[in-house]
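dumping this here before i forget
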Amino acid sequence: MTDSADARSLVPGNYLKFGIFLAPFHAMGENPTMTMERDMQLLEHLDMLGYHEAWIGEHHSGGYELIACPEMFIAGAAERTKHIRLGTGVVSLPYHHPFTVAGRMVQLDHMTRGRCMFGVGPGALTGDAYRMGIDPEAQRRMMNESLDVVVRLLDGDSVTEKTDWFELRDAHLQLRPYTQPRTEMAVACARSPSGALAAGKHGLGMLSIGGTSDEALVKHAENWRMCEEAATENGKTVHRKNWRLVTMMHIAETREKARENVQFGLESFAQYFRDIATFPIIPAGIDDPYEWLMESKNAIIGTPDDAIEYIETLLKGAGGFGSLMQLAHNWADFDATKRNYELISRYVFPHFQRSNDMRDLSYDFSFTNRDKFVGQAANAIQSEIDRYQARKKGEATD
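structure:
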């Protein structure tokens, strides 16, 4: 097998799904109302292009990641799209009472007719936790305490539970989820093993964030191993098809054009991570974000062929996953951003979904047998000519 075939064999079911992780990131100084409208338009564009899903973030501070309520955004997006699935990416469980979180997601599941997904995490921005008076060191414990309850509620249980930050008394939901047996769920997983262990404990999907360098891929693979072990220990099963890996890409017709495109917003993005964000996607002290991203393999900025090669590297490094999520970073202006997604849909999707395998087989068979088919066609035409001439000759004789 070729290297490409080796990589594609790591895709569960021979079909890699594609989506985006929409934090979103928007440069300071822009009209915030219009940035949200463009995010909506982007989801409409992705829906038309055949993207499978989009995960919408929850952030409350820092001024750059503007969506505070992903459920509200998803409800609006569901009315403007037809096919794409929409997930919370993620609901920060320590910020909410688990009873109301579960109730909101069940409502959203019904309103979207099963197109919503429920991603959860501890909360990414320390500034959010500070403003709510939450100890950052307690966030992962709080996420697990909430998740234990939320899963039980979604499964129809009546829950009585008390912790140092929430209480439920004979709590049960009014509705079952629209999606049976339960709304699809995933847990965010970065550097800490807590997300992987929580996903395995409950048999949920995993959303891997935190970079795609060689070192990061080793960590992602280790997290998946821990997820599988936790699932076995708790009598659950997890599947790689429900493992989503988040990475960064910008694609154009040429490498030169792709690099030119990202000059629009890459430096602003890098500045945000130097100044505000908890996780340094682009570390402080980096003078050229483009060179660092490319050399560290945390992103690909290039052509569709470059994207294919890059994704194959990710598949091999992680050992296989079911969905590739592009971080919606707004490095390029809106037109170039939409063109990036179009090129990926047209030329990258088919490679990892084997969309053209039967077309290739049909084309190759037709090419191999062309002389025979052409000869048969010529004979058929000549036979018709001969029959016509014979009939005309007979009519003239009569």
